[in-house]
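Dear support,

I submitted the protein below through the web form. The confirmation email said the job was done, but the results page showed an empty box. After a refresh the structure appeared. I'm attaching both so you can tell me whether what I see now is the final result or a partial one.
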Amino acid sequence: MAVSKDLSHHLSEEARSRKNSPLKSAFKYYKQPGMTFLGGGLPRSDYFPYSKVTAEIPSAPFAEGVAAPLTESNKTVLEVNKDASLNGENEIELARSLQYGYTEGQPELVEFLKEHTKTIHKVPYDDWSVILSIGNTQSWDATLRTFATRGDSILVEEYSFSSALETVHAQGINTIPVAMDAEGILPEALEKMLDQWVGPKPKLLYTISTGQNPTGSCLSADRRRAVYKLAQKHDFIIVEDEPYYFLQMETYTTDKAQRASRHVHSHEEFVKALVPSFLSMDTEGRVIRLDSVSKVLAPGLRLGWIVGQERLLERFVRLHEVSIQCPSGLSSSLINSLLQKWGQSGYMDWLMGIRSEYTHNRDVAIDAVNDFFPKEVTSFIPPVAGMFFTVTFDASKHPKFKELDEDPLKVETAIYNQGLSQGCLMIPGSWFKADGTSNPPQPPLPENKDAKNLIFFRGTYAAVALDELRSGLEKFAKGVRVEYGLE
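What the results page shows now:
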């Protein structure tokens, strides 16, 4: 296979100025036989108050489902000890994980995730690697600091995760929105923008391409290939933020027989059904992939990983040495023990189970939207991935549209407040709108009054029990009916 392309010209001023830490370079002698190591402020593990950590987890292959209550027959007990001799093979003893440690992440966990990445993405070049982070939010912050300098511009989806956008703005970086439709980024709009660009072009494209937050859209393989070709042509790096990648589902249907029959039967079918990632298309090493356990295990574990070419990841490591130091030791030990116990096969079984759970949750949410929301003013597209769905409203049909200055955002605010008064919160779409302009500014699209007056709200089917999900959507729908004079 090929090696990656040298993209070091995209590094930020901060990343270029980082030097290797001389203290970190001395750690290669730590625990070396015959070496008395007096070089670092590492407290003796005798002083760590944790001798053993025990956790109960479900046993693979999860025949009763991933959400089944644990019983003696379907659970596995993990024990992670301070003393390495009391642990199983490939476990990370607490004496090591609770110490200042590997900035890249504990080797056993890194190796598991590398093997997992090979299986799913089949990275088409040789010199790639994995480093651990403390979740995708921190990974994104580190990515910006590694590639962007204050005053630079980056490309983002027209609607994007508001916290990710704020991370950009706080660093003085300009966001350039790329037009989207119900299926994600429009490659032709991106191409037109870049072909007309004047001056230094954006270094990065930030995309949540699977189960997009907030729209729930999923970028097709063809569109991903088109975007990747544009990255090659215009020399930018694609940052795929993919916490929802494994929450991919089959197409929504109201047919109960079809619902009962739809499921994948094998690991091979599961992997084949996944939309190809940008990483799987990356022959040049111009994709930085951000992965996380937040949506498939638990967000409070605060552990993620970054995949990319080794030369670029080395700059991330230099940043992490003086920021996060290393991922959480307790999380590393517990996650690693869980994954080692399940193995690659068991972890795949878990992901398949999570897929099934989210498919059912999505169905319940969309059924409720179908049942309760007024079709006269409402439209929606059932998502095929992720945690989110959107419901779109025609603001121009609001009975007080003229009194509200024919301003769709005022209608959005009225619906939001009415939803709250009925006892259900959904998030207004305008909260996720990216701002910024290209150079030169793009001419406005032909005016489409219908589209101009459309507003949407984002909901999730991940946060509450299904009966509460359904009743909550019924309450929000009542608020919509009240606002539109249909109640």
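Response: this is the final, complete result; the empty box was a page-load delay. Residues 102-353 form a domain with the Aspartate Aminotransferase; domain 2 fold (CATH 3.40.640.10).
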